Amino acid sequence: MTFEALQQNRAYMLLECISGSRAYNLQLPTSDTDIKGVFILPQQELYGMTYTPQVANQSNDEVYFEIKRFLELLEKNNPNILELLSTGADNQLYRHPLMELIKPADFLSRLCLDTFAGFANTQLKRARGLNKKINQSYPAERKSVFEFCYVIVGSQSVLLRNWLHEKQLQPEHCGLSRIDHFRDIYALYHTGQFDTPVIFKGIFSGSDANDVQLSAVPKGPAPLAIMQFNKDGYTVYCKEFAAYHEWETLRNEARYAHNKALGADYDSKHMMHTFRLLNMAAEIAQYKEVRVYRHDRDFLLRIRNGEFSYDTLVEMATEKLHHMQQLYAVSDLPEHPDPALAETLLVRIREAYYVS
Length: 356
Fold this sequence. Notes:
- There is one protein chain.
- The chain contains 13 helices and 10 strands.
- The protein is an alpha+beta fold and 356 residues long.
- The strands form 2 sheets. The chain has a 5-stranded mixed sheet. A 5-stranded antiparallel sheet has the order 7-6-10-9-8.
- Strand 3 and strand 4 (62-66) form a beta hairpin.
- Helix 4 runs antiparallel to helix 13 (339-355).
- The chain starts with a helix and ends with a helix.
């Protein structure tokens, strides 16, 4: 089964809904229309050697789950799947009568505390990630290993680059030797220390190097200096440098421009969905239903419009998480859905569909 095959053979469609912002009542004039749905594999393909758990179009804004995968995720209280099953009639494009067998209330459990909070935390981390990236800047060129090397001078550490400049020494004329039992600490020698000519490899192999390099050092003179390479710091820097430039390349320019225009140092859309998920999780504990259509639209759009500071939203989200935990502590929801229910429904649906 492929996305194209499903569109050409819509008899295998069990559920098709408008999802995302339009289902949440959070759409803007510029919002896209996302589609999610459920399908059932042709019987012949089900009996074959392959299984297709889901299909999607190229832009991934239309996604369909095979009924088995759908029920597996439903049993895990996956927020996206619970939302899809609970989509209001106004946003249902098609619903097969067999889908009436699957009731959201039969699957709601205390797992929602973790799944919805987990999704909310993911959105919060993304918002925090943008907060961090907006307030940091990296040049086009990555720093080299050279910038993370230090030598001991008296009781202080001095940047190797500055020390070499002061001593009028060239790094390519230096050689490093490992010191046993000391991590990332090396004995540094210079060719000028030796009576006979020696050739050293230098401190590192080049600007793209990720580590220092060692040289064969003849016995004789004591080290000219003891050098430490801050390898952990360099590793963290390289990861953050790569992440920043990847984000810069792949970021949604329209959304980034929107956040910059608002003066918001966070991704306001991610932060809006953080609060949407937290509110939905609380409603599940209180009312035992998934309320996809958001009547708190005004508040959520105020977040998207950047009306709150980043620190205020983090504080509010933390309070909501604590409140949600209290709600679930006194809720009579089961710990998890009945493990036999999903399998029973899957068998019933497949039997009814294939027989008919």
